[in-house]
Write a structure and sequence with these properties.
The protein has about 425 residues and is mainly beta. The chain has 3 helices and 40 strands. The strands form 3 sheets. The chain has a 30-stranded parallel β-sheet that branches. It has an 8-stranded antiparallel β-sheet with strand order 10-17-13-14-15-12-11-16, with no helix packed on it.
Length: about 425
């Protein structure tokens, strides 16, 4: 096998010299930092290697090889791949195709998934306490840190008032951990946490995933869990079996990550389901024709997240549902069977958004929807109210500069408490 170091390789050489059978393995491709010419024609600098394949049976073997060499890119040539097992992507690895509709991973109606999945640790006890400025984590109620927790794991506090996370330096005993950096947040006392080994610096780009038949939120076709610094870009997740409640994209305990131009459409359940996420941003993402809500944002510890120019259209449930802290900018909910937006969370903002032709309200705020801002939005031709604040439990919401037209039940119903208005008409 020819060695390639610090040189530009012709496109045909990349394809020829990096395509191996499973039996031949991938170990013979020289690791190390080098610049190559990828099949897309652009120069790519990678810390490990680039492997290009055209056989579905090679996908996991190639990903495992990249993992052993410290990371790199798996390039899937144009065509349809029919894996017979889950696809599991490790840290520091990007899986990339030649474009939506060109590179297709087709699960053939099997209960299979594309995984970016870290490892949850079993810790016992009722929670932890951490003092601001300290590196010491003290377990409460019978923790068992020595059993499962390891250096470089992450700790994520499951609390609306925190949602903070940090990296573990060492495990002292069953009730004491040491952090790599001093805890910069306010002191916490006996709060529940996730501790997990994270998948870090990974992603998926330029391809379609389709025809999965798993059932439930834990069977999302694209499943991202216990992950940091993840990127999904130009990805279509579609056509999961409608006889199952198959979610399109699932994010659980995901931190500092982005989804760009990702579409989840015509799936048997929720288009996008997110829970316990922190600093996750969706750009130009869309949920279309799913047999439930378009976007479902759950969990009180989800905070610091945002949607920019995202679309939820023609779903059988709510367009955008949020019991978490999310901000929505220039988003559109149109033609959903439920409300355009349902806000059950606190400190959400809807700015320059629209809700048009939905089967319920344009925007519904429930009893737990407090301290939210709705500004410069268009509410038009919805089958119920433009904005509906359902109960007196909804407190201190602000509605400003919104436009209403043609909503069947009326412009606005407000049963809430201490609602503030500015130029509503």
């Amino acid at each position: 096998m020819k060695e390639y170091r610090d040189e530009i390789i012709k496109e045909e050489e990349v394809i020829e010299n990096t395509r191996y059978s499973v039996a031949g393995g991938f170990d013979s491709f020289l690791p190390g930092t080098h610049t190559i010419k990828s099949p897309t024609g652009s120069n790519v600098v990678v810390g490990g290697q680039v492997i290009t394949i055209s056989n579905a049976n090679e996908i996991q073997s190639a990903l495992n090889a990249l993992d052993r060499d410290g990371g790199g890119t798996l390039f899937l040539k144009k065509g349809t791949y029919y894996p017979t097992d889950d696809v599991t992507v490790p840290s520091n690895v990007i899986i990339e195709g030649e474009g939506i509709g060109n590179t297709i991973i087709d699960f053939g109606e099997r209960a299979l998934q594309v995984f970016f999945k870290g490892t949850a640790r079993t810790i016992g006890g009722t929670g932890v306490s951490i003092t601001e400025g300290s590196t010491t984590v003290t377990g409460v109620g019978g923790t068992t840190f020595l059993t499962d927790v390891a250096k470089d794991d992450f700790i994520l506090v499951r609390s609306l008032t925190s949602g903070a996370y940090s990296e573990i330096s060492s495990v002292t005993n069953n009730t004491t951990l040491v952090l790599k950096k001093a805890w910069p947040y306010p002191t916490i006392t006996n709060l529940s946490v996730y501790i997990f080994k994270a998948i870090n610096n990974s992603g998926i780009k330029n391809l379609t995933i389709k025809n999965s038949s798993g059932e439930g939120a834990d069977k999302g076709v694209l499943y991202i869990e216990f992950v940091l610094n993840f990127l999904a870009e130009n990805v279509l997740v579609t056509d999961s079996a409608p006889i199952f409640v198959t979610y399109g994209v699932v994010l659980n305990a995901v931190i500092s990550s982005e989804l760009r131009n990702v579409e989840s459409s015509y799936n048997g359940g929720v288009g996008f389901y997110s829970t316990s996420v922190k600093r996750v941003v969706f750009y130009n993402c869309s949920a279309i024709g799913n047999l439930s809500d378009g976007f479902f944002n759950d969990s009180i510890i989800s905070e610091g997240n945002a949607f920019y120019s995202c679309f939820s259209e023609g779903n059988t449930g709510v367009g955008f549902y949020s019991s978490a802290t999310f901000n929505f900018f220039s988003c559109r909910a149109m033609g959903n069977d439920g409300s355009g937006y349902q806000i059950d969370g606190t400190f959400c903002m809807l700015s320059f958004c629209s809700a048009i032709d939905n089967g319920g309200d344009g925007i519904t705020i429930t009893a737990s929807g407090d301290d939210n801002i709705i500004e410069d939005c268009v509410l038009k031709n919805n089958d119920d109210y433009g904005i509906d604040i359902l109960t007196s439990g909804a407190d201190r919401n602000l509605i400003s500069n919104c436009l209403f037209s043609g909503n069947t039940s009326g412009t606005l119903r407000d049963v809430g408490t201490n609602t503030f208005y500015n130029n509503v008409g």
